[in-house]
Design a protein that fits this description.
The complex is a heterodimer of chains A (626) and B (496). Chain A contains 21 helices and 22 strands. Chain A has 626 residues and is α+β, with helices and mostly antiparallel strands. In chain A, strand 8 and strand 9 form a beta hairpin. In chain A, helix 3 packs across helix 12 and helix 7 crosses helix 8. The two termini of chain A are 50 Å apart. With 496 residues, chain B is of the alpha/beta class. In chain B, 40% of the residues lie in helices and 17% in strands. In chain B, helix 7 packs antiparallel against helix 12 and helix 12 runs antiparallel to helix 13. The longest helix of chain B is centred in the middle third of the chain and has 25 residues. The chains are: A alpha+beta (626), B alpha/beta (496). Chains A and B meet through strand 16, helix 17 and helix 21 of A and helix 5, helix 6, helix 13 and helix 14 of B.
């Protein structure tokens, strides 16, 4: 009775898509679904801005930079906000070849949230509701009861609650409930949905103390400048435009004294005295972990990162900790340049519940509750970029499903988002998941420069007609024209051309060579050379097109060679299968059938990646079903 | 569909069930729970502990079939990785059959040959290389093969492959360090680990390569094969080696139509000695089939002997053998008059390292007719002393030196043992697939060095390493991305 009354009485409270959580996953989910002109709501905690950056003030990184560009290519918003809030740019792995280069920017935290809030505010399809959620009921449609008693309804619900599910903070012996400092935690998942499986183990993450910028002696540290040549993330931004002033980061080190203090206080560390039972990520250890796991080392890097242009705090990257406050204050002052440092906000660890992602399908929709999606840290991932990527996948598929259209799944051979989503739904997590480029089988191809070659087709499949869609169509046209020109344009060994080659240090010109052969010469930088030659020819192409064409040509041979090796595996992996047929097949062992039923693989590749699937089953399926 | 792909429960008698013995061991694998076999077992299986032998009875229709010892090996720690049970029964074949049938009625199926090991392989309990080692242990007829089998299963060779695997993981880790974690570990250190682990990999592969080049024939189950024209005296030689009358000796041409073989023990090794069918152009279909099979032995025999009767030598009779090389050429009928004359007429023989001259039973003679022969370095007594001059026309690759000429049947045994000892002393790898893969890996590494000289582009290096990886996988088992990441996280402090 109650909910019918609510529905009739308050049509305004009904949403096509309702998102619980306003972090990076929530924002992307809302943004992409709003681009289908659906009515979208974001329910978020009061006092927490949209897309806040509660941990390190940076967006991008190795592998993650690719993800940000993938999000941007699909119509997401992270790249745009990051550019507008960036106070330092870096191209990582600059000396190691184009394929592994990634962009990372330091962002002004306040500016980032401000820009996000502004974009959401200007978007007429998105409504923000700032109130904790009390419970969610799934009854024909979703009924979300807020703490005020008001009920919102929706067709699709996307849960992006980050670390807020049963969140518990630890700073030394002090414990409090919450998802991050100064915020309440949400209720547990099992309270929200009895049908949703939660991993039996909780996850843990931590953050370092923030230090008062006025108490830092930067003269004792090595400065790192912003890179002027690094390109912006967002497609419509001038590649080298800077929106705000640029600042330096600094590098310093812990001392043996630092580690002595930590080692002397082992019994007061929540992660070593048993107070925290959850599992933290191995790739992001706390300073306590470092002190005890690497007893031979007496020093570790600490990157001092400004949290904003006018922020009064810096973020000391590398010393996340949950030690008691007084010990934090003590060890901080043993670090070079931080001898007089004062802590503004102490470091803490947070334990939280995580959804069993093997219970989700490739659109991140729950297999148990249709129309319910999960994205972001609640799925056991770490990182803003990973969260945003999932938000986008869940958001666009929730929208497509709402509109009764086909879903869009990113292939793991073409994007890091595809790698991540498939890894998540195929294997149960035993530690927080972060993208490494090693997780991809196709690293030479999944690059930043060719993001549109990889993803324009997926964006097109969304069937939208926005500026970005025109841009991408145009970009791909130019790409194809220039790629053809590369093969067809020939240099003849005339006196004039020979002199030109000599002048530009292009090497010998004996017989006819094509433009492609020229830029592939190992002593030349393909991008710069193509840039020069295109200008010389009087042709005009988008800088991004030239870059992408040059790097694509450079790696073509290697990518093909690698593809030959993996082609068979890939072709087999892409084959679709009906899991319903497998679970009734007597030739497959009971145990495997149970796993197949739990994961519900959609392709042979996914079946292969399910843990505990017997090779005999794979051989049988490959030989008899496909 | 192959039965091997059906992973239902299987049972087999692992100790051989064709002759009575005191004890037979039945192995069961792949049952979903012990309850599946409970109907045949007296003891309540719900309460038994793992890897403890229990005395109980096999019971069918409340009749005791046998008193047995039962041990439960729970998966995944069992041999196959599945739920396993071993039952020791009394070893009468009838008894075994009756018990097996009882289990078949419960829905277990008879295991195919090698199926337990196949499952161990498929469940990643063993690598393919280990399975090959097991095969050597079970099937070789030499101590050398046995030792190498043990080596590949869990010993020296297995360790070498494990080393190869861990060095390779380190090499891959260094690439991941350089790409994903250079802020944490530092570029210099990353390149240093890359260079060092690549050097180490090269050294190890070089060492394996040395052990897998050169002709090793089949050292695990070696054979001595006799070739030659019909009635050249192969069967006589065969019987000399066997010291009995196994092969029918007759003076009618073409008696040994197919090949005949027996096993003899020389030193610590069992050799299969093979008397192949004589070669001659034949219209007889059965015979030419036999000849074809004889020629097949040329490829696989460990010690190849060509037997020639110099009194019946026509060049065209050796056309079939011309392109092969032999360990030894034996000239028979040396006791006959005019042997030397006929012998010296022979030219253009197949390649060989040594020559042996022998007569039937009579001593070799006549003395002093052929020329000087130098000091007495021969194997076996030379009785009477026979002297041979330069062999000029006989061998196409130049004259045979006197120290390559041997006299008397006994030398054959010594020469065979000598070759076997020489080859095994270098501890060569004899599993053909390994030799092939090692050669490929060696090749890949050489090519990779060229790429390394050309570029420092880590993505390209990494992609080329992945190509080598597919072959290393085949030798040492699969390396998963998680293995690489685990190696990184346990060896380096990651996380800035």
């Amino acid at each position: 009775m109650f909910h019918v009354e609510q529905k009739n009485m308050n049509y305004k409270n009904h949403f096509d898509i309702l998102i619980i959580g306003g972090g990076h996953a929530g924002l992307e989910a809302a943004w992409i679904s709003s681009s289908f002109k659906l009515k979208v709501g974001i329910v978020t905690m009061p006092n927490v801005p949209i897309a806040s950056t509660p941990c390190n003030p940076a967006v991008g990184g190795v592998g993650k930079g690719q993800v940000v560009r993938e999000i941007d290519a699909l119509g997401g918003v992270m790249g745009k906000i990051a550019d507008m809030s960036a106070i330092q740019y870096r191209t990582l792995n600059e000396s190691k070849g184009y394929a592994v280069q990634s962009t990372r920017v330091q962002v002004d935290k306040d500016l980032y949230a401000e820009n996000a809030e502004k974009l959401v505010e200007e978007n007429k399809y998105i409504t923000v509701i700032r109130e904790p959620v009390k419970k969610i009921i799934d009854d024909e449609m979703f009924h979300v009861e807020l703490s005020s008693g008001e009920v919102l309804t929706s067709d699709k619900t996307i849960v992006t609650t980050g670390t807020f599910l049963n969140g518990k903070l630890h700073t030394g012996e002090e414990q409090e409930l919450g998802g991050r400092v100064d915020s309440l935690s949400s209720v547990g998942l099992e309270d929200l949905f009895s049908k949703i499986k939660v991993l039996p183990l909780r996850f843990k993450t931590g953050t370092p103390p923030r230090i008062n910028i006025n108490t830092v002696d930067f003269t004792k540290m090595d400065p790192q400048e912003s890179d002027e040549a690094t390109h912006n993330f967002h497609w419509s931004h001038e590649p080298k435009k800077r929106f705000v002033d640029q600042v330096k980061c600094y590098l310093t080190r812990t001392t043996s004294e630092t580690l002595d203090i930590i080692r002397d206080n082992k019994e007061r560390s929540p992660i070593f005295n048993g107070q925290i039972k959850a599992i933290g990520p191995r790739y992001c250890p706390s300073i306590e972990d470092k002190a005890f796991r690497y007893p031979d080392r007496d020093s570790h890097h600490v990157f001092i990162e400004p949290e904003g242009l006018s922020a009064q705090t810096v973020y000391p990257n590398g010393i996340s900790t949950s030690l008691p406050r007084e010990i934090q204050s003590k060890f901080i002052q043993t670090i070079k340049g931080l001898e007089k440092a004062e802590i503004s906000v102490h470091g803490y660890a947070v334990e939280y519940d995580v959804v069993d992602t093997t219970d989700l399908d490739l659109t991140l929709q729950s297999k148990a509750v249709s129309g319910l999606y999960f994205a972001g840290q609640v799925n056991g991932t770490s990182g803003y970029e990973e969260a945003a990527g999932q938000g986008l996948v869940a958001g666009m598929n929730a929208a497509l499903s709402f509109l009764g259209r086909d879903r869009v799944i990113l292939d793991r051979f073409e994007s890091y988002i595809g790698v991540m989503v498939e890894d998540l739904v195929s294997q149960q997590r035993d530690e927080p998941y972060r993208l490494f480029t090693a997780r991809s089988e196709n690293r030479l191809y999944i690059r930043e420069d060719n993001v549109l070659n990889r993803l324009a087709a997926y964006r097109k499949a969304l069937g939208l007609k926005h500026n970005i869609d025109n841009f991408q169509a145009n970009f791909m046209n130019e790409f194809n024209v220039l790629m053809n020109l590369l093969s067809s344009y020939q240099y003849q060994p005339t006196m004039k051309e020979k002199l030109y080659f000599e002048k530009n240090n292009y090497g010998p010109l004996g017989t006819n060579i094509s433009l492609k052969e020229l830029i592939k010469r190992s002593h030349l930088d393909p991008v710069k050379t193509l840039m020069t030659e295109v200008t010389q020819l009087g042709a005009v192409f988008l800088p991004g097109v030239i870059r992408s064409v040059a790097i694509t040509a450079k790696y073509e041979g290697y990518v093909n060679r690698a593809n030959q090796e993996t082609e068979k595996q890939r072709r087999l992996g892409k084959k679709q299968l009906k899991w319903e047929r497998l679970i009734n097949n007597k030739n497959i062992s009971n145990e495997c059938r149970q796993r197949i039923e739990a994961i519900r693989p959609e392709s042979f590749g996914q079946l292969q990646r399910i843990e505990g699937i017997r090779p005999a089953t794979l051989a049988f399926v490959a030989g008899n079903i496909l | 569909m192959s039965e091997l792909f059906n992973d239902g429960p299987i049972i087999a008698c692992s100790t051989g069930d064709d002759a009575p013995s005191a004890i037979a061991v039945l192995r069961i694998s792949g049952i979903s729970s012990l309850q599946q076999i409970q109907p045949l077992i007296k003891k309540k299986l719900g309460s038994i502990g793992p890897r403890i032998a229990y005395l109980t009875e096999i019971i069918e229709d409340s009749k005791t079939l046998d008193e047995v010892l039962l041990t439960y090996y729970p998966g995944p720690k069992s041999y196959t990785g599945e739920e396993m049970v071993e039952i020791s029964t009394h070893g009468n074949p009838l008894n075994i059959q009756r018990i097996l049938r009882g289990f078949y009625r419960l829905g277990l199926r008879a295991a195919g040959p090698g199926e337990f090991t196949y499952r161990a392989l498929k469940n990643n309990k063993m690598t393919l290389s280990q399975v090959e080692g097991l095969d050597l242990i079970l099937n070789s007829s030499s101590y050398f093969g046995l030792d190498q089998g043990l080596g590949a299963l869990n010993g020296e060779l297995f360790k070498k492959y494990q080393d190869l695997r861990s060095i390779f993981i380190r090499l891959k880790s260094s690439i991941e360090l350089l790409i994903d974690f250079s802020e944490d570990v530092g570029e210099e250190q990353g390149w240093e680990i890359f260079q060092n682990s690549f050097l180490e990999l090269t050294r190890l592969v070089e060492n394996l390569k040395q052990r897998s080049t050169g002709n090793i024939s089949d050292l695990s189950s070696p054979s001595i094969a006799l070739f030659g024209k019909t009635n050249a005296g192969k069967s006589t030689l065969f019987n000399k080696l066997l010291r009995d009358e196994r092969s029918i000796v007759s003076s009618e041409e073409g008696t040994t139509r197919d090949y005949v073989s027996e096993v003899i023990s020389l030193g610590e090794t069992n050799f299969r000695i093979v008397d192949t069918a004589g070669v001659r152009s034949s219209e007889n279909e059965i015979e030419s089939e036999g000849i074809k099979r004889s020629l097949a032995w040329i490829d696989k025999a460990f010690y190849k002997i060509l037997v020639i009767n110099p009194f019946d030598f026509k060049e065209k009779n050796f056309d079939d053998f011309k392109n092969y090389s032999f360990d030894l050429i034996v000239f028979t009928h040396a006791d006959k008059k005019d042997f030397i004359k006929s012998f010296q007429k022979i030219s253009d023989l197949p390649e060989t390292g040594r020559i042996l001259i022998a007569g039937a039973d009579a001593p070799i003679g006549p003395k002093g007719t052929i020329g000087p022969i130098g000091p007495d370095f021969k194997n076996g007594p030379i009785e009477p002393e026979l002297l041979i001059g330069p062999m000029g026309p006989v061998i196409k690759n130049g004259p045979i030196e006197p120290d390559q000429i041997y006299y008397g049947w006994d030398s054959i045994e010594n020469l065979t043992i000598r070759k076997y000892t020489e080859l095994t002393s270098k501890n060569p790898i004899i599993i053909e697939r390994h030799r092939h893969l090692i050669a490929q890996i060696h090749d890949d590494i050489t090519k990779f060095q060229v790429v390394m000289d050309e570029t420092r582009d880590i993505a390209i290096l990494s992609s080329e390493i992945n190509i080598i990886e597919t072959r290393i996988f085949e030798l040492v088992g699969i390396v998963k991305p998680d293995d690489i990441l685990t190696s990184i996280f346990s060896n380096f402090c990651i996380g800035k």
